[in-house]
Amino acid sequence: MSKFSLRKLSATVAAPAVAGVVALSTTVGAPAASAQQLPSLQQLSAHAQQQIDNFYGQTRDQAWQTRNDILSQAERYTPELVPNVQSTVDSALEFVFPGLIAQKNEEARLAREAAERAHAHQIAEEKSRAEEAARRAEDQRRANQFDRGSCPADAKICVDLDGRRTWLQESGEVSYISPSMSAGMVGEETPRGTFHVNRKVKDEVSREFNNAPMPYSIYFTRNGHAFHLDDTNVDSNGCVHLPYNAAVRYWNDVQIGDKVYIY
């Protein structure tokens, strides 16, 4: 495509996008809206025009990133104008790179479906392991052979670090056994002793470790030790990792104040 064609595009398609983004700064330009200084009208206009002009000479992936940068800028200032800005910018993108939007939407759809299949497969495998563990536990309970180690009858959660086992108890009886678990690595061992649940955060992240996800967190110390969903094939920095079904079961059954015994 020639540069002349792109300039015609700027006049017929890109210019309204610039106007839309410029309108964002007009809407949010009140000085009391934020402590952060907003860009001037001229700066915002020039920046948006430059981004749209930059479609020319870019690869398809670079142009897609430019498009997303423009929409992010719009969302930052006035979300209600995003549909208008997106429509205009997408028209410009489609003109320069026909079929790119459909391609990226299809890639996103395929990625979502692959992730959903992988998640469903993981849940099915964990459910199967949990059911097998439950069957084994039931057999052991019937034969009164389940080894509770030194865990007291009034503990809600028991953890056998050396045996890499953890289970729930109800009224002194084993009520659930996690199919797997992992605990603290050498140098960052999970503490042993008697504790009590002090906090629960369902959608927790670890700020200490770059916002790593810690779903279904059940804290039992004031130093960040918790039971939570994570890969049980990997040792932790002190927490107790649980597979998905166990993490959900612990989350549903364990309450703040419940006793935790780790030995």
TrEMBL record:
Active site residues according to the UniProt entry: H228 (proton donor/acceptor), C239 (nucleophile)
Keyword Nucleus in record: no
InterPro entries named among the record's database cross-references: LD-transpeptidase, LD_TPept_cat_dom, Transpep_catalytic_dom
Signal peptide: 1-19
Keywords: Cell shape, Cell wall biogenesis/degradation, Peptidoglycan synthesis, Signal, Transferase
Domain (L,D-TPase catalytic) ranges: 155-263
One Pfam family matching this protein: YkuD
Record CDD domains: YkuD_like
One Gene Ontology term from the biological process aspect of the record: peptidoglycan-protein cross-linking
Gene Ontology terms, MF aspect: peptidoglycan L,D-transpeptidase activity; transferase activity
Taxonomy, superkingdom: Bacteria
GO cellular component: extracellular region
Basic and acidic residues bias spans: 120-145
Chain spans, region Disordered: 120-148
Pathway it works in: Cell wall biogenesis; peptidoglycan biosynthesis
Xref: PANTHER family: L,D-TRANSPEPTIDASE (PTHR30582), L,D-TRANSPEPTIDASE YCIB-RELATED (PTHR30582:SF2)
The protein's name in its UniProt record: L,D-transpeptidase
